[in-house]
Structure formats: structure tokens, C-alpha cells
Write a structure and sequence with these properties.
The protein is 17% helix and 33% strand. It has 127 residues and is α/β, with parallel strands linked by helices. The strands form two sheets. Strands 1-4-3-2 form a four-stranded mixed sheet, with helices on one face. The two termini are 30 Å apart.
């Protein structure tokens, strides 16, 4: 019997303080901790996507917009202006001003550990 691949179940982020980062996603983006054990936390977004936050080891690596590897997590929302204002009120560190690209509204920002995320409100969903 052949395997059927269903897609990403979760993405892992290594953090020096997994609980603090999990709590940041809860307080800042409305995720909830749906499973944890020891010092590992799964946070789930309202749309069902999940992040696993695990303990990190070693020194942090360079984290620039085009550094090799996974570069950002895109956070979808329906009201860009309200989401942007909410993140501003929560003191999120933005990496630039909001802008529009092909009818989509975007703004890049960092989580508690400096991982890059961006808000995106799409004019049309991706195919």
C-alpha cells in the first residue's frame, strides 16, 4: 500500500524559553496551547495550523529576511487594519511599514524570540 502525504501537521520552533514563547503566541495572536509535555508546547491557531515549540541548544543563528532556510511564518487575517493596530498596541516589533503587493496587504514583525512573521490579508486566496 502506498503512503498518502497529507501536508504539514506542524512546524517546530526552537526557543531558549519554550513556555514564554508559547504564551506569546497565545497572548499576541490568539493561539491556544492544545498539547504540552515536559518543556514542549504545541500551540494551535484558530484555523487549525500548529507550531511545536521546543527547547533550543547552542547560540542563535543569523536571522535576516533572506537568510537560508525557513524565513517567515505568514499569519492570515481578515481585517488587516484591526490586526495591525492590535499588534501595535501589544508592542510587537515591526520590521517595516505595512505595504501592498498584488492586492495583498502585508507587514513583517518578530515574535518574542526574534523569529520573523508577517500579517497577510489577501485580495484573493491562493489557488
Amino acid at each position: 500500500m502506498a503512503a498518502t502525504y497529507h501536508g504539514l501537521e506542524h512546524t517546530a520552533i526552537a526557543s531558549p524559553n519554550p513556555k514564554a514563547l508559547a504564551d506569546w503566541y497565545v497572548a499576541t495572536l490568539g493561539f491556544h496551547i492544545n498539547f504540552s509535555y515536559d518543556v514542549f508546547f504545541f500551540v494551535k491557531a484558530p484555523n487549525g495550523s500548529m507550531l511545536e515549540i521546543i527547547p533550543s541548544v547552542g547560540d542563535p543563528v543569523e536571522n535576516q529576511m533572506k537568510t537560508r532556510g525557513i524565513r517567515h511564518l505568514a499569519i492570515a487575517l481578515d481585517n488587516f487594519d484591526a490586526g495591525y493596530a492590535d499588534l501595535q498596541a501589544k508592542g510587537v516589533k515591526f520590521l517595516g511599514a505595512p505595504y501592498e503587493n498584488q492586492g495583498n496587504r502585508l507587514v513583517f514583525f518578530e515574535d518574542l524570540d526574534g523569529n520573523i512573521l508577517h500579517l497577510i490579508a489577501r485580495e484573493k486566496p491562493l489557488p
